Amino acid sequence: DVKVTQSSRYLVKRTGEKVFLECVQDMDHENMFWYRQDPGLGLRLIYFSYDVKMKEKGDIPEGYSVSREKKERFSLILESASTNQTSMYLCASTYGKTEAFFGQGTRLTVV
Amino acid sequence: GENVEQHPSTLSVQEGDSAVIKCTYSDSASNYFPWYKQELGKGPQLIIDIRSNVGEKKDQRIAVTLNKTAKHFSLHITETQPEDSAVYFCAASKRGSYIPTFGRGTSLIVHP
Fold first, then answer.
1. Segment B11-35, tens digit of pLDDT
2. Which residue, A46, A25, A100, A58, is CA-closest to B90?
3. Interchain contact, A43 vs B105, CB within 8 Å
4. What is the pLDDT of residue B2?
5. Exposure check for chain A: N or C terminus, fewer CB within 10 A?
6. Pairwise CA distance, residues A73 & A67, whole Å
7. Of B42, B49, B102, the CB nearest to A43
């Protein structure tokens, strides 16, 4: 059974903290994505990666960075968390242009 | 870039009724159109997809239709059941790109 695993289901962080969200996939997929999901706004792409150490900005990259040191792992970093980054974060992976496999999501609250 | 519009944002039906969710896309080069279902507390999961060389695809109670000329595609769910209640997302990917663009989602509520 294919899997995309996000390290935390729920996180509560303080304003200004550096936050790491981790995502691991076991399908040897080339492409990995980080989305943010907010009510009424759907899934918005933050960053994506098509290979190890490669990254591209999505639609809303401001305030975020990413790291992909190994093929199976894609990390999202909030350099200095702010309350407007309170959201659901979803990681996904694909092989070529096929279905996206999503993690279960991390609900981040910044207080 | 690609833009995907999805309607309605909320859909409420009685158990046994049919439900239809519609999406339009802007880029005529798009050729892959998946639909995802997101249940409460879970990530989205693919339920059906269609490629631009096909006009319709069915899987039991679920069907997707594609009109390339009008640049729209629709999800049809027949004989709805309470377990169909979820958020549904459409997406489109264009030729040469592996990045899907998602619609904003439709919250489907099936009343017993």
1. 999 999 999 999 999 999 899 999 9
2. A100
3. yes
4. 82
5. N
6. 8
7. B102
